[in-house]
Amino acid sequence: MLMQLDVDGRVIAVFGDGDLGPHEQEAVVLSRSLAAQGVRVITLGLGAQSAEALSVIATDETPTATASSTTLSSDIHRMAVGIVARRHRT
Question: In this predicted structure, what is the pLDDT of residue 5?
Fold first, then answer.
């Protein structure tokens, strides 16, 4: 459905509090395929370990963000603002 939209920029944001589980390799292949189609995959992990685990599927040059339970709302907001700001720069 995402590829059918008539838009300039496509972004998938992945939020998590763990790792990618037994399907990590599939997720990496899928994220690279999406990147080849012009889709940015950005990630936000709850805690450093989750951020590190999710970083393998991030296709954006921006490092995976790390959130805490107290900063999660503002971190998600910052991601959204960054997506919109980048769209206006391109």
Answer: 66
Domain that holds residue 41: 10-89
Q: How confident is the model at residue 30 (pLDDT cuts 50, 70, 90)?
A: very high
Strand (E) or helix (H) holding 17: none
Backbone φ and ψ for 11, nearest 5 degrees, come out as -135, 135
| Tally of domains in the chain | 1
Please tell me the distance from the alpha carbon of residue 73 to that of residue 18, in angstroms, as a whole number: 18
The whole model's pTM is what? 0.79
DSSP structure string for 62-90 = SPPEEE-TTTHHHHHHHHHHHHHHHHHH-
